[in-house]
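Q: Focus on the shape:
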Amino acid sequence: MFFARASTVKFLMTVFLMVSPTAFADVEPTATRDYLNFLIRLNNSSPLEHAASRGTMGLSFGLGFGVYHHGVDSDILREHWRSPTQDNSDNQADRNRLAIPRLYVHKGLPASLDVGMVLGQEIATKAKLISGYLQWTAIEGLGMPAVGVRGSLSRLMGLATTDASAMGVDGIISYSVLNMLTVYTTIGLSRHQMEVRSGQDYGTDFGLTKTGEGSLEKVLLGRSRSFGLQFVLLPPFFVSTAEVQMNGDSTLNYLAKISVGI
């Protein structure tokens, strides 16, 4: 058992050293690349959880949000980041950041396993972000760092011309001080499948026709890092978590939540 866990730690450390916060993809026009990187960042959802199992009695619910800065061309964003019922001329999504509220559910299982779900919806377009994950804590103990692995599936839906799904794996290392303050870091790899269909006006920016018949389909790989801080506001029930995430084009994402549970 000791050697198996030591091998897990060695593997995670190797991945941590090899991975940098950049996305790699085929060479694309700038407008296309910016939008696809934006989708990668949005669809790489984090549960804001460190590497520790909650046990079979563990259950928590949380409310939070994510703030995503971007450099996507405003015309591209108005055309492709809109609901099916929105006209692009009425779409006000030309701001340089999006804030997405989220609901978090986390449940402990036997054998150091945890499972959870994250649900988000962007206010202006009603675009939905849904992800589920399974986490295994390989190493944890009093006074020592905890090490875990998390696998996830994510889906972005509800937009007129854009669909995206992703699967990913993250290594997690965390350290807790008196079970009140926990710092953690993650390193991750993800695979993203995206489709952008021709819209009303700006489909040609993606090499598409303006007739609504064309589509751009891409499968891209992403790398990410994050650093988080969790503080117990009222033991053991109320917990606050904040995380800074670096995805794709190295632009920072800011996430936070307050959760209630055991």
Q: What stands out?
A: The CA atoms of residues 83 and 125 lie 5 Å apart. The first strand starts at residue 59 and ends at 69.
